[in-house]
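Annex B. Sample input.
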Amino acid sequence: MARKKKMGGTEVAFRPQTIIEARYDLDRRQNDILDILLGIVGEGDDAEDNTRYEINIADVKHLYDLKDESNAYMYLQKAVKKFEGAGFKLKEDENTDIYYPWFSKIKYQKKRGDEGRSKIVVDLHPEVKEMIISAKQGAYYRIEYPLNLTKKYSKRLYYLLKNKENFNGGVFVVSFSELRKMLKVPDSYANANVKKEILDKPYEEINGNTDISFEYELIQEKLPSGQKSLGAVRFKVKKVRRNHTIVEYETIEQNGDVIIASEEEQEIIDILGCSLKESRDILRTANANERTHEQLIHILEYTVDKDVENRVGYALTLLKNGFTEAATRRIAASNEKKAETKTRSVSKSSWNNNDLDIAYSQMDFDDLEKQLLSN
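Annex B, continued. Sample output.
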């Protein structure tokens, strides 16, 4: 195998430059599936002549934090089914194009009664496998980063930028027409709309949510008519050190469709690190006990500072029973200008349980959480 073995296990994918620059139209979920596959190919004891790969529920559960395996399988199946009859096109030379199917065979294996063992087995075309394994140029990336990008053009541009981040200081130029073709933008789309979809929106999403950031500059060209038009785009890519990514939290409904957290739910998830269901339980308890948004956020931040074992149970207890005087003093000290307002707010909302910290140490939180959520 010509390419050095990638590091990072299945968490890291390698996407060859030929596939990055190929012409195809995959939606967001299809690219997720392809990323999972590219993390597997060439990993471990994968033989050079092997073309068969298993994508199982564990891959999706790990990446999407899904808990219902039967729903996860349905989601996985829906995403993979979109590959049926789909492929990509490569330009061999000026007069020759080659079309490859993404998968030469797809086998869906649902284990009724044992959903954890359900899987989908895909066969790659031998030349596609060879293309992945032998490629000397391409992008190595952690799957978590493109996974967080919600728009398909953001994903495609991310792969292109990652491929070029170490080239010429991260500076490169692509003709605007070639960029349109590569991303399979319909010919009917005006350049102004294309710029918004393939440059402006990805700019907002990639910068700050991934391990790279980029700037771009439009290069005008003069047409035979004398008018000016978009001729090319100059990109400048920079590596960004990140401790974690900003994840759009999602889960799966019974029919396999994706549901996404609301802004309030996402805020709770980001602070507390809980699940979507738990964030909804917390929000419901806060509303039932007439806690303001400010009080809710203070409770969540205080819970995180306490470093308790059961954060959700502790936050639910504070929301229902009241806030401790110690927490009130900490909040007041952190923002003196609002101390009076907060004190009034505390008294109006009856945040007056002085013994809550002591009570916490004596509680069975698993049982308590069940009681609170059953109300």
